Amino acid sequence: MRIIIAGAYTIGTYLAKLLSRNNQDIVLMDESSENLEKFGSDFDLMMMQAPCTRLQALKEAGAEDADLFVAVTPDQNKNIVSCTLAKSLGTKKTVAKVDNYEYTTDTLVQTFDKLGIDSIIYPEMLAATDIINGLKMSWVRQRWDVHDGALVMLGIKLRETCEVLNQPLKDISGPDDPYHVVAIKRNGDTIIPGGNDELKLYDMVYIMTTRQYIPYVRKIVGKEHYVDVKNVMIMGGGRTAVRAVKTMPDYLDIKIIEASEDRCTKLNEMLDDDRALIIHGDGRDLALLQEEGIRNTQAFVAVTGNAETNILACLTAKRMGVRKTVAMVENMDYVNMAESLDIGTIINKKAIAASHIYQMMLDANVHNVRFLMNADADVAEFIPQEGAKITQKAVKDLKLPAGVTIGGLVRNGEGILVSGNTTIQAGDSVMVFCHNIYLKKIENLFNK
């Protein structure tokens, strides 16, 4: 598969590194030789210094027979134009990153489709969705709803109060239990577990269940004492914060602390429905936090442009009694550090955007792909075709690789947890968990 990525910036370089692990034919384009040099030479791909809006450069990059063209430069106009040009040359699928929320509305998406742009990515909206999911349940690090909650994936840090520690999964998460443990992060390693694996103290565990059994999962992992989020304090009033506030549930009481006075004025204009109280100040100022009621706040969200600031602010909030913290960490080098410091939910826009782009390179009918950022694993929603290999046998007879497990499926709108005796049907939405290296390989099971 030939993939052209325009823009050697955060999303482009992260995506290029991600795709290079699958031995794809990748071209990374950028006008700046400095950007390309920063990327390094340790990855199996071609680097090309050229503007992505020049027709001849696109031809030299191979756009005429490319499978996927991804435009993720900082200039949304260049992204739109280059995608249109690439499609006109013969590229099969195109993706453009934009910085304007209005471009994601249904009407404009249809217009872009006519121009040859198959997908529009607005990272701030994707990040805002993850922030809101992280706030819905204070005891969960990560939540992902499949088909409006027919299935729910929960990422949970296990503490001493967990009832199911040190027991084989076959005894606590069998075919008749209303949840499945689909991945475990432990001491830097990711385990796609089997029946003999056990949950240990301080594991980060990923559980698949259905909506009605969320209270049951909450009980067995010992999180019933966590208070639900009603008050949220946000540090940083950038675009991610604005998108999050505009889509947060009405029951949340929201305060935004922003260091720039000019930005505070703009926030008051943008959020003119009194959706949030705007406070001019430094979110690291302990006196200010106390004055604004940090000790009575259930959640603290740090989304400034500085990862160190966000991590430090969340640590401060935790010391002041806030149980739920969310930090935007754009520097991938800091993600593991934030996890080791017990920062709650970690948001990385480029990883989220890359997840959405990655699904477009898979041949099977894939609706969603998510990288479990704190774990070396992927989760994908596959829909098997009529006559697909995976529909021919019960799951226990499919001989799935050791690093692959099927967590659940949605059939006719109903979430169903998968056991060894389950037979998958064409048209089911099937949730597959696997180590990164397997995702491209197992898609063949879902094709004829």
Automatic annotation (TrEMBL):
Tell me a GO cellular component: plasma membrane
Q: Which GO terms describe its molecular function?
A: potassium ion transmembrane transporter activity
The RCK N-terminal domain covers 1-121, 229-352
Tell me the Pfam families matching this sequence.
TrkA_C (PF02080), TrkA_N (PF02254)
Which stretches make up the RCK C-terminal domain?
141-223, 367-448
Xref: Gene3D superfamilies: NAD(P)-binding Rossmann-like Domain, Regulator of K+ conductance, C-terminal domain
Query: Where is the chain membrane-spanning?
Result: none
Query: Which UniProt key words apply to this protein?
Result: Ion transport, NAD, Potassium, Potassium transport, Transport
Protein name, entry field: Trk system potassium uptake protein TrkA
Q: Which organism is this entry from?
A: Segatella oulorum F0390
Lineage at the top is: Bacteria, Pseudomonadati, Bacteroidota, Bacteroidia, Bacteroidales
